[in-house]
Automatic annotation (TrEMBL):
It comes from the Bacteria. The keyword Transferase applies. PANTHER family: RIBOSOMAL RNA LARGE SUBUNIT METHYLTRANSFERASE YWBD-RELATED, SAM-DEPENDENT METHYLTRANSFERASE. It comes from Pseudomonas guineae. This is 23S rRNA (Cytosine1962-C5)-methyltransferase. GO terms for molecular function: methyltransferase activity. Keywords: Methyltransferase, rRNA processing, S-adenosyl-L-methionine, Transferase. InterPro entries: SAM-dep_methyl-trfase, SAM-dependent_MTases_sf.
Length: 316
């Protein structure tokens, strides 16, 4: 249940942001994660630091008065010494609960794209045009894990989106990465991301297909030493987690090399890590659960099983 965004709640948000901007991160980071339900009245608010751009998102409706109070807080923040010293120049407010997720530029010149870096790697973000920027910040440790695991490996990146895992894998020395996603525009941005990192595109395959109609194409490039599964929780017409995840898991033993690794992810709050472990045991019993990756500390959650799940399994 979302509490009202009271003046007291907004004061807490203001203090968090002032503290964060006083020591602004060198890389892209979430500055405030209300969705973890640790601060009553701020459950619908997130704030991301995109290296000079502050992106504030509202995930549930608020009253007109609450919205105006939030805007006033943010504009006042932009007048502080902390803001100026942080190097911030743009301020965006996105209403994710509305159709098309409209974004208002409270400060700064509107721009379609903005390049950022994370863990030494570069990514191009969309600002103000789409629901998501193109990089999910809570998967920061997942990308680092993939980079550390990829040397010399053949990697399959399912539901690749803008190919963040692919960039990390190639940076880690992967022999080849195969990216599959139905959204060809997202894969095109994935190419941009690889180019930003001066990667050799001959080592990267982009398959703009429906996975469930394309197992033959996927298998052609295998077997794989590392498979990443990071599907949307629910995407109308393409993926329903509870129904479709098992269909993916049962294909894994035939796609994996001996001792191959799988990173299976879920961001569905209603489904805990036990679901993936149980489903893997049923659909692909040759794969053994190894570990759950930690989530970054900037994503606190009062119910950890509702937060991002990134689980490692090993074949054999």
């Amino acid at each position: 249940m979302t509490m009202p965004m009271t003046p007291a709640a907004l004061a807490i948000l203001q203090q968090h942001l002032m503290t964060a901007l006083n020591t602004a991160p060198q890389e892209t980071r979430r500055l405030f994660h209300g969705r973890g339900r640790c601060w009553p009245g701020l459950e619908q608010v997130t704030v991301d630091w995109l290296q000079g751009v502050l992106l504030v998102a509202l995930f549930k409706p608020v009253s007109d008065d609450e919205l105006q109070a939030l805007q006033a807080l943010l504009l006042a923040l932009s007048q502080t010494t902390a803001w100026q010293q942080s190097g911030a120049h743009s301020l965006l407010l996105q209403q994710r609960y509305l159709p098309e997720s409209p974004t208002q530029w409270l400060l700064g010149e509107p721009m379609e794209h903005w390049d950022i870096h994370e863990h030494g790697l570069h990514y191009r973000l969309d600002l103000g045009r789409k629901q998501n920027t193109g990089l999910f910040l809570d998967m920061r440790y997942g990308r680092q894990w993939v980079q550390a695991q990829s040397a010399g490996k053949r990697v399959l990146n399912l539901f690749a989106y803008t190919c963040g895992f692919s960039v990390a894998a190639l940076a880690g020395g992967a022999q080849q990465v195969v990216n599959l996603d139905m959204a060809k525009a997202a894969l095109s941005r994935g190419r941009d991301n690889h180019r930003l990192n001066q990667h050799e595109l001959s080592q990267v395959v982009f398959l703009g297909h429906d996975l469930f109609k394309s197992w033959g194409k996927v298998a052609k490039y295998g077997p794989y030493d590392l498979i990443i599964i990071d599907p949307p929780s629910f995407q109308r017409g393409s993926f329903v987690l509870s129904k479709d995840y098992p269909k993916v898991l049962r294909r894994l033993p035939d796609l994996l090399s001996d001792n191959g690794l799988v990173l299976a992810c879920s961001n569905e709050p209603e489904i805990g890590p036990g679901y993936l472990i149980q489903a893997m045991g049923q659909e692909a019993p040759s794969l053994q659960f190894s570990e759950r990756l930690s989530n970054p500390p900037e994503f606190p959650d009062s119910q950890p099983d509702s937060a991002l799940k990134a689980l490692v399994f090993r074949q054999g």
